[in-house]
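Section 3.1: Structural characterization of target chains.
Under the original work plan, the team committed to producing a structural model for every single-chain target entering the pipeline before any wet-lab resources were allocated. The record below documents one such target. The sequence was received from the expression subgroup and is listed exactly as submitted; it comprises 163 residues.
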Amino acid sequence: MDKYEQVDNVFHNDSVYMKSLVGKEVELKTIDGKTLLGIIYVIDPIFKTVVLHTNFRNEKDFQTIFVFHHAIEFLKIVSDEVEDSYVKEDNKNRGTDQSTRKRMVKKWLKQMLIDVNESGDYLKIEDHLVIVPPYEPANCICNNTMILERTQKVLQQMPQEYS
């Protein structure tokens, strides 16, 4: 596959391919001529937004930039090597299987009268919010900060033993 991807090709590929980009170093050129170099943290499959960590020095020292799909002119994969800290499981969930965590979060949200549906590995709340593995409050993606904060608060209130 060519190292230069047209934006439409990246966003129209399946979620497995998008997930394979996580942790890779890329160069993004925006329509206004800016070039960003960084590591992909996540690609939101609903709003087609790339979350990029730039000025990456170590797994705790970086800047986070959100790049909306309409602003990307092209994406170039700089390195096929994957930064391990982006793909390793969260320490909190090592004892809990991801499918179990997903089921628990879905059940909790429904108990809180929040309509949630599954879409592959993701949990979706209407077309507003997506929760990606490992289904923690920090794994919520939403353009509306009020909805995001409220959903994160609901997840933070979920009992650890909830099943």
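Residues 90-95 have pLDDT under 50 and may be disordered.
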